[in-house]
Amino acid sequence: xxxxxxxxxxxxxxxxxxxxxxxxxxxxxxxxxxxxxxxxxxxxxxxxxxxxxxxxxxxxxxxxxxxxxxxxxxxxxxxxxxxxxxxxxxxxxxxxxxxxxxxxxxxxxxxxxxxxxxxxxxxxxxxxxxxxxxxxxxxxxxxxxxxxxxxxxxxxxxxxxxxxxxxxxxxxxxxxxxxxxxxxxxxxxxxxxxxxxxxxxxxxxxxxxxxxxxxxxxxxxxxxxxxxxxxxxxxxxxxxxxxxxxxxxxxxxxxxxxxxxxxxxxx
Length: 267
Description:
This protein has 267 residues and is of the alpha/beta class. It folds into 2 domains: 2-182, Oxidized Rhodanese, domain 1 (3-Layer(aba) Sandwich); 204-266, no CATH class. It contains 10 helices and 9 strands. It has helices at 12-19, 36-42, 62-67, 97-106, 124-139, 151-157, 186-195, 206-219, 229-239, 244-266, and strands at residues 2-3, 33-34, 48-52, 74-75, 85-87, 90-93, 114-118, 144-148, 199-200. Helix 3 (62-67) links the parallel strand 3 and strand 4 (74-75). Helix 1 (12-19) packs across helix 5 (124-139) and helix 8 (206-219) packs across helix 10 (244-266). The longest helix is centred in the last third of the chain and has 23 residues, at 244-266.
C-alpha cells in the first residue's frame, strides 16, 4: 500500500504513480499519458479539451501561450489561476471544492470532459505542474484526464500546427465529487509514521530542500509547515545527528559560520 502525505509539494506523486498504470488511449478510456500522434488524431473530438498550463515555472505563461499553442487549447496559468492555495500558513494546498468547481467549470470542463493537460515540456518541474493538475482534476471527480507526453515542445518538434492568440473557453457547470482514495490527511500520515503499515515517500523537490537549508543557514529557522519527514531526515543525516532536537541545538552553533561561508561564496 502506498500513501503520500498531503503536505507541501507532495501531490504530484499521485499522478506520477497513476501514469505507471497507463492503458491504451481512447476518448472513452483515457490513458494518463498520450502521445502527440494520439492528440492530433483526437484533437477535434467533441469531448476532448486541451488545457495549456504554461506559467512562470517554465518561463512561459499567457504570453508564450498566445504566441503559439495547440489549436483550440485553453490556457490556465498553473502558477496564478488557483490550482494551489495557501491555507493556515501552509502553501500549495488543495483548494476547496467550491473554488475548484469555479476554476474547472470556467475552463469549459465538466464531469464528461476528457482533459488533456499540456505542460511546456522544457523541464521536469513543468511536468510536476502537469502531474499536479492531473491529480487535482482526478481528485475532484474528472474521470478522463491525460497528460501530453513532452508537452508543447514535443507537439512543435513533431511538426504539428499551432495557432496564436487566445482561445475563449465555453464555461460549464462542474459539480465536484471528492475522491478520498487519492487524498491522505496529515493526521493519517502521522499515524503511519508511528505504527507503520504503509510506505511514505517524500516527493519534495531537491530545490525545496536546498531552500530550507539556506533559510536555516541564514537565520537559523525552519518553517514548521515545511519540515516534512524527508527534509528532517536529510538535515539530520547531513548534521550527523539522530534526533531533530539535537539538530535544532546544533543549528545555533553553526549558523554564524555557515552564513560567513555563504557570504564568501556569493560575494
